[in-house]
Design goal:
Structural class of chain A: mainly alpha
CATH topology of the largest domain in chain A: MetI-like fold
Helix content of chain C: over 70%
Radius of gyration of chain C: 19 Å
Strand content of chain A: under 5%
Order of helices and strands of chain A: HHHHHHHHHHHH
Structural class of chain C: mainly alpha
CATH superfamily of chain C: Phosphate transport system protein phou homolog 2, domain 2
Distance between the termini of chain C: 31 Å
CATH superfamily of the largest domain in chain A: MetI-like
Chains: A mainly alpha (270), B alpha/beta (261), C mainly alpha (220)
Mean pLDDT of chain C: 92
Helix content of chain A: over 70%
Number of domains of chain C: 1
CATH class of the largest domain in chain A: Mainly Alpha
CATH topology of chain C: Methane Monooxygenase Hydroxylase, Chain G, domain 1
Radius of gyration of chain A: 22 Å
Strand content of chain C: under 5%
Largest interface: A-B, 20 and 25 residues
Number of strands of chain C: 0
Low-confidence stretches of chain A: none
Number of domains of chain A: 2
Number of strands of chain A: 0
Low-confidence stretches of chain C: none
Number of helices of chain C: 7
Largest sheet of chain A: none
Mean pLDDT of chain A: 89
Shape of chain C: elongated
Order of helices and strands of chain C: HHHHHHH
Oligomer: heterotrimer
Number of helices of chain A: 12
Chain lengths: 270, 261, 220
């Protein structure tokens, strides 16, 4: 008898907990939608920050994240390939894996300050390169981890079959293993991209912000996330509305990328 | 009977193991015959099979003793495959001694690319030549009729039995002298199993075959010579009809009649 | 089953057929020899039976090898086991024929010609017919055809029973003095062998039916 009661209690408690979580999520989305709805108009996508629009910062965020991906994904993938294909379960590989996992939880602002010291001060000012590098540093541990686990899903017989035909280890990795893990690796890259496109702290002291559209990474670089921060704390109704609009756009963007990765992964799973 | 491979006093120890998995194996493998290795789980038959193309080398730290002599069909002096130290020598060995695995291993590419994989590794680039050799290999594996209209489709779309025949065609395309089969039908249904057994009997006319199987009836059906292994020893090695009708060792007889343990 | 099994089994089947044919030809030659007690033909008949037992043992060993290597089931198993038993039947038919020939070589001249023409030759003819029908069953696989031939063999075997009965009565009724008794006894025993050969033919036919009908082995 008491077992049934305990069962029921646990069921009710866990349902309540789930509902609380979902409630907050929906509350955030609802608030964003309502507040942002009134602020989103065509002007936002056609004017730059200097003219109370968000065009340059949206483009800028993409370029920063894109450059970070161009740096971070290859480095992360190569490290992941090393870990799984060459290091396997050696002690050295285990150590690197642990370090990488720790780095994933590194405070983003600390990374920002680190890059400030290395790529901003010696170069005489905020610049887009530093921003991209800071984002890529955040990205690398994620890419390393997903590459490592995606490659571990490739069955060992597949590698042996390549070797048995006379392929060298590198040929096996390039022509067989990477092909087999293709979808997982792409998903990992997309997830890493989605992660860094919503970051603010690493950009605060590296690329800062720019009111104008700029395609050169040599100077301060426009960023959506930093803009939201700056606009939200500026005591003007226009700025506040713009901040809400930016938040909605950013949220929808990240949501969209995450959903895309789910769609890519799902139907292909055997 | 001509020799294709001669195993001489061969012992093998996995890294981290204190005692050898294979103990002093002496076993001939005759050319153009099917030699089967049978025995209970853990007896070392797969370990022995995988020594013949040195695929153990992918995992460092193994210790071995003795020789494995590989003969060629020109009648020249045989070479000890453990003398090969450089990577390109190992690559050449694996092109002469191919391997088929228990789980079918189609590469994530088209059927045509799968079959020509080994050939492209050899440096053959001519598209017509690749296609011709692919056709011959597929015909030789009784797969041509089933796939000739979809050579560019993915190999992972084939059934299990077809995938295994694809792997065989892929290995056969390299015209190896020896083919090693590691329990090739244990993951397949009875009909696919039968077609692969027929294929192996056909293949032995051109290629020497060595097969590990936990299915004794398979060994009795298709092999010419059979070796019974137990706990790392080659207990008995003889003509298949002798092993299954008049085995000399009691251990062999106990295993064959199912009275083991 | 694998092609190797089919090939091996076909060889066994052909060997059995060839050996059975030899027994048939021996009986046919015996028939012709009995007509004029030709010593030459009697010897020829005996020659056809040479080395049959060692050939049959070879076939047995081949069958055992097939069982060991191929583990047949269902109809395949019935077929292989039937062939194993058929070789025994052929062996007995062959030794019966040999004894027959031996007695005829010795006593053919002493038997009354009318008895030979009225009883002995028909008896031998029925035996030959029974054997011939049985051997023809080996390469047929249609069960209805097999059943028809089986009935014909039964008819011939009944004839041999009947003919032997009449022959025995006739010979015993004409027994005049006891000096003939040993010879008469030997001759009667020989004639009985014709009936036994026909029995063997039925056993073989029954085994062949067992292959295609299934069920369990049965007495005829």
């Amino acid at each position: 008898m008491s077992r049934l009661i305990i069962n029921k209690i646990i069921l009710i408690l866990s349902t309540i907990a789930a509902l609380i979580g979902i409630t907050f999520l929906l509350w955030i989305l609802a608030t964003l939608t309502i507040k942002g709805y009134y602020s989103i108009n065509w002007h936002i996508f056609t004017a730059d920050l200097v003219n109370n629009g968000l065009r340059n910062v949206i483009i800028g965020q993409f370029i920063l994240a894109g450059m970070a991906t161009a740096i971070g994904v290859p480095l992360g993938m190569l490290a992941g390939i090393y870990l799984r294909e060459y290091g396997a379960n050696s002690k050295f590989a285990m150590i690197i894996r642990n370090f990488s996992d720790v780095m994933m939880s590194a405070p983003s602002i600390v990374i920002g300050i680190f890059v400030y010291g290395i790529f901003v001060v010696p170069f005489g000012g905020f610049n887009g390169w530093a921003g991209s590098i800071a984002l890529s540093i955040m990205m690398i541990p994620i890419v390393v981890s997903t590459t490592d686990s995606m490659l571990s899903l490739v069955p060992q017989e597949l590698r042996e079959a390549g070797i048995a035909l006379g392929a060298s280890k590198a040929q096996v990795i390039l022509s067989i293993v990477l092909s087999a893990a293709k979808i997982g690796l792409i998903t990992g890259g997309l997830l890493a991209f989605a992660r860094v496109i919503g970051e603010t702290a690493p950009l605060l002291f590296t690329s800062a912000n720019n009111n104008f559209l700029s395609l050169s990474l040599n100077g301060q670089y426009p960023s959506l996330t930093v803009s939201i921060y700056q606009l939200a704390t500026f005591p003007s109704q226009t700025s506040q509305n713009l901040a809400w609009a930016g938040s909605v756009i950013l949220t929808l963007l990240v949501l969209f990328i995450n959903l895309t990765t789910r769609f890519i992964f799902k139907p292909r799973k055997q | 009977m001509k020799l294709a491979i001669d195993t001489k006093k061969f012992s093998f120890t996995y890294p981290k193991n204190s005692s050898p998995t294979l103990k002093n194996i002496n076993m001939p493998v005759y050319a153009n015959q099917v030699t089967a290795l049978i025995g209970p789980s853990g007896c070392g038959k797969s370990t022995l099979l995988r020594s013949y193309n040195r695929i153990h080398d992918v995992y460092p730290g193994n210790q071995y003793d003795g020789k494995i002599l590989l003969y060629n069909n020109k009648g020249e002096k045989p070479e000890n495959i453990f003398d090969y130290k450089k990577e390109n020598e190992l690559i050449k060995l694996r092109q002469r001694v191919g391997m088929i695995f228990q789980k079918p291993t189609p590469f994530p590419m088209s059927i045509k690319d799968n079959i020509t994989y080994g050939l492209r590794l050899l440096g053959i680039k001519n598209k017509t030549e690749l296609l011709d050799r692919a056709e011959i290999a597929l015909k030789g594996s009784a797969l041509w009729e089933e796939v000739k209209d979809r050579l560019n489709s993915s190999a992972t779309g084939l059934s299990g039995g077809q995938q295994q025949r694809l792997c065989i065609a892929r290995a056969v395309a390299l015209k190896p002298e020896v083919l090693l089969f590691d329990e090739p039908t244990s993951a397949l249904d009875p009909i696919s199993t039968a077609s692969i057994e027929e294929l192996i009997i056909e293949l032995k006319r051109e290629i020497t075959i060595l097969i590990v199987t936990h299915n004794m009836q398979q060994a009795s059906r298709i092999s010419d010579m059979t070796g019974f292994m137990y706990l790392g020893d080659l207990v008995e090695f003889d003509k298949t009809e002798t092993i299954f009708l008049n085995p000399k060792e009691k251990q062999t007889e106990d295993y064959i009649t199912g009275r083991f343990g | 089953m694998l092609k190797t099994y089919d090939d091996d089994l076909k060889e066994v089947k052909n060997s059995i057929r060839n050996i059975a044919d030899k027994v048939l030809i021996a009986n046919k030659t015996l028939f012709n020899a009995t007509k004029d007690c030709s010593e030459k033909l009697f010897s020829e008949a005996k020659l056809h039976l040479k080395n049959i037992s060692s050939s049959l043992v070879d076939v047995d060993n081949e069958i055992i090898k097939i069982l060991a290597l191929h583990s047949p089931e269902a109809k395949d198993l019935r077929e292989v086991v039937a062939y194993l038993k058929i070789t025994n039947e052929i062996l007995r038919a062959s030794s019966n024929t040999r004894s027959l020939i031996r007695v005829f070589i010795q006593y053919c001249e002493h038997i009354d010609k009318t008895i030979i023409n009225e009883y002995v030759l028909p008896l031998q003819a029925s035996t030959v017919k029974a054997l011939e029908n049985t051997i023809s069953m080996i390469n047929i696989d249609d069960i209805d055809e097999l059943k028809d031939i089986f009935h014909e063999i039964i008819v011939e075997e009944d004839k041999t029973d009947e003919l032997y009965g009449m022959l025995e009565k006739k010979i015993l009724s004409e027994l005049e003095d006891s000096s003939d008794f040993e010879r008469t006894h030997k001759v009667l025993k020989a004639f009985r062998r014709n009936e036994k050969i026909a029995d063997r033919a039925i056993s073989i036919a029954n085994l062949i039916l067992y292959i295609y009908e299934g069920g369990i082995l049965q007495r005829v």
